[in-house]
Write a structure and sequence with these properties.
heterodimer; A: about 190 residues; mainly alpha; Rna Polymerase Sigma Factor, Chain: A; Arc Repressor Mutant, subunit A; B: mainly alpha; 6 helices
Chain lengths: ~190, ~120
């Protein structure tokens, strides 16, 4: 971060700590970071309605836990962590519901996406999203942050509180699995 | 870049296939802020904390004081009415000793008196 960015970050954290300025500062945070957080959430939960619900719930949780934010990380990193955890919790709950409803989980993600008004990808893209959705949580998250957001491993490490070595291993395993998924369909 | 990565980058593009409704991000902040409570419950608790501590100390002091008071009263009073009557009628051993000293009678004389056939 540049010196200006560092100063802005410090000022923001100070305003979030002060009850008098907290609410206005939180609103600025929501306006500034929503788009970035939304896409992190959307890529995990896949549909717009779910992404909207999860993101708003994440903001409410962040507001309720604001006193526990001590500036150990950037505000965006802290929010991303909450948003990603909320997204993964949502997906886990959804998987349990799908298992109980006896719907065939194989192929349902791709079909669901192609029927979604807010999905513009072709069949290959839908199949890719299905392959990603089958990955374990860490592999899925690392793959999306690295492949789509081109986030550095150091940033992902701070976000997920996992070592860079473990993240690199997870990413390469994810790439391998997705490649195999496509090769099996070719 | 690994062979798998080259394959994937050639197979799938990084364009975003997902869309959002028009104006979504413009409305989002207002919707989020409307969901947040006006005053955080934690802030309210923090403000009340000194009063809560004072109330807790007062309760502990009252309970300790009441316990001490009742405990002390129990020690001063006999356990039962019968005990009270017994304590008031049966003289203590010191009374006999004083009486024996006054009469210049020792224990041997007392035993002899008690075992005689008078």
């Amino acid at each position: 971060m540049s010196n200006v960015e560092i100063d802005q970050e410090h000022l923001l954290q100070q305003q979030l700590r002060d009850p008098k300025t907290r609410r206005r500062a939180f609103e600025r945070v929501v306006r500034q970071y929503s788009e970035q957080l939304y896409w992190q959430v959307r890529r995990i939960v896949l549909t717009h309605d779910d992404a909207n619900d999860v993101l708003q719930n994440a903001y409410v949780k962040a507001w309720q836990a604001i006193d526990q934010f001590h500036g150990d990380s950037k505000v965006l990193t802290w929010l991303s962590r909450i948003a990603i955890n909320e997204s993964l919790d949502f997906v886990r709950r959804q998987k349990k519901v799908n298992q109980l409803s006896a719907d065939d989980p194989d192929g349902s993600v791709a079909s669901m996406l192609q029927a979604d008004d807010y999905f513009d990808g072709d069949e290959t893209e839908a199949q890719l999203q299905e392959a990603i959705s089958k990955l374990p949580d860490v592999q899925r998250t690392v793959f999306q942050l690295r492949y789509y957001d081109e986030m550095k491993y150091s940033e992902i490490s701070r976000l997920l509180d996992t070592s860079e070595g473990a993240l690199k291993a997870s990413y390469h395993i994810a790439v391998k699995k997705i490649t195999e998924f496509f090769k099996a369909r070719d | 870049m690994t062979e798998e990565e080259k394959y994937l980058y050639g197979k799938i593009h990084r364009d975003n296939p997902f869309r959002v409704p028009d104006g979504y991000f413009d409305r989002l902040a207002d919707e989020v802020m409307a969901r947040l409570p006006e005053e955080k419950p934690a802030a309210r608790l923090v403000a009340l904390r000194p009063w809560l501590y004072a109330a807790a100390c007062l309760c502990i002091a009252v309970i300790a004081g009441v316990s001490f008071y009742f405990n002390r009263n129990m020690q001063l009073q006999p356990a039962s009415t019968d005990d009270a009557i017994y304590a008031s009628t049966v003289p203590s051993d010191s009374y006999f000793d004083d009486a024996a000293n006054h009469m210049m009678v020792d224990n041997q004389d007392i035993y002899a008196c008690l075992t005689s056939e008078y």
